[in-house]
Amino acid sequence: MQLLTCQNQTALKERLYHDEYQTVMHLSLQKGQRIPEHHGGDAEVTVIPVRGAILFTASGQSEHLVPGRLVHLNAMELHSVHAEEDSDVILVKSAAGPVRGC
């Protein structure tokens, strides 16, 4: 068993785990907060809502995500987020090679 502690905490995000192939982040978003269009670099990204509701947009398609609904993105896929309610989201960035950035 490996005990993990949080690192790099900000008001918006905290890194829960990081190694050269995977990063797990917790995002805490307030109702109305937006994250503008961006991509996850060379990593594939899985977005897992655990509380609240977000509007997630990628490739011109928008989805309302709530706990129990998740989305998986390919590397370099542009996406944006809008919190419809106060929300907590887990992001998992995974790569065949080392993950770049956070």
What features would you highlight for this structure?
five-stranded antiparallel beta sheet, 0% helix, Jelly Rolls, four-stranded antiparallel beta sheet, 102 residues, RmlC_Cupin_sf, RmlC-like_jellyroll, Cupin domain-containing protein
Task: Walk me through what this model shows.
By secondary structure, this protein is mostly beta strands. It has a single domain (about 15-95), classed as Sandwich (Jelly Rolls). Helices cover about 0% and strands about 50% of the residues. It has strands spanning about 15-20, 20-30, 35-40, 45-50, 55-60, 60-65, 70-75, 80-85, 85-95. Strands 1-2-9-4-7 form a 5-stranded antiparallel beta sheet, with no helix packed on it. β5 (about 55-60) and β6 (about 60-65) form a beta hairpin.
Write the SSE topology.
Elements: E1 13-18, E2 22-29, E3 34-38, E4 44-51, E5 54-58, E6 61-65, E7 71-73, E8 79-83, E9 87-94
Count of DSSP-assigned helices: 0
The beta-strand count equals 9
What order do the SSEs take from the amino end to the carboxyl end, as H and E?
A: EEEEEEEEE
Structural class, from helix and strand content?
Answer: mainly beta
Detail the poorly predicted runs.
Answer: 6-10
CATH H level: which superfamily?
Answer: Jelly Rolls
**What's the CATH C level?**
Mainly Beta
| Major sheet characteristics | 5 strands, antiparallel
Q: Output the CATH topology.
A: Jelly Rolls
- What CATH architecture do you see? Sandwich
